[in-house]
Amino acid sequence: MSGQRRLNAGITVQILLDVFNIRGIVHYGTAGSANDSLSCGDVSVPKFVAYTGSWEWTKFGSTSEPSRDLMFGEYNVPTEGTNLLSSVEFKTEEFYSVGKPMEEVFWLEVNAAWFRVAEQLKVQLERCVNKTYCLPEAPKVVFGLKASTADVFVDNAAYREFLFKEFEVSTVDEESAAVIMTAMSISVPVAVFRGVSDLAGGDANWSSTALSDLASTNALKVAVEFIAAIGK
Predict the structure, then answer these.
(1) Around 167, how many Cα atoms within 13 Å sit in the side-chain half-sphere?
(2) Alpha-carbon Rg for the chain in angstroms
(3) Residue 69 pairs with which residues in a beta bridge?
(4) 20 to 30 A Cα–Cα from 187, which one of 17, 55, 73, 199?
């Protein structure tokens, strides 16, 4: 119920933390897959999440060599070359937490104890959208991958491949990093469950509202099992 994108998600978590005595945040939703080993209906339980929507856009002709960059000229067609858009350098985030100095972070780690509990889950996921439409293989729960968050809906195969190659990102969404960062600022544990609803531009044949519903159902199913486990 947080609404879409980082600002809405962060504000919603902050309201929860301000109004209620929160033991922890269990966040679930859908995501696009940037990893060919993940298919629609699978559920990813990431250990690390980065915000990949903070850039420094470099000047055309700049001689600087940023450590994390996307060079637009490399994606020219039919052959790579120079491009007036130049490149963007991915920036770290300023992370503020109670009783500690500001840190510059790129990867946010979910709560280790909660992640260990999640790893023990054995959940049978839904395979069929309806009586006549089922996935060719049973979906699976995958633990410990990396995820990225940005205020961008990724539907581009080249950018999908870039994120996986450069950062080993397996899923892309618009809220997870904000949820984790907001809760972590006062040391409230967080667990994230993301159902794969599409392949982020990798294959148009696997994009449909029905598959998005299935991904949501499976993510919720794993989240509910986690709540039962953590309650014990």
Answers:
(1) 28
(2) 19
(3) 89
(4) 55
CATH class (in words) of the domain with range 6-52+107-231: alpha beta
159 with 201: CB under 8 angstroms?
yes
Tell which residue, 114, 96, 192, has the closest CA to residue 149: 192
Give the other-Cβ count within 10 Å of 207's Cβ.
17
For each of the chain's 232 residues, which pLDDT tens digit applies? 677 788 889 999 999 999 999 999 999 999 999 999 998 999 999 999 999 988 888 888 776 665 558 888 888 888 888 888 888 889 889 888 888 899 999 999 999 999 999 999 999 999 998 888 888 889 999 999 999 999 888 888 999 999 999 999 999 999 999 999 999 999 999 999 999 988 887 766 555 667 888 999 999 999 999 999 998 6
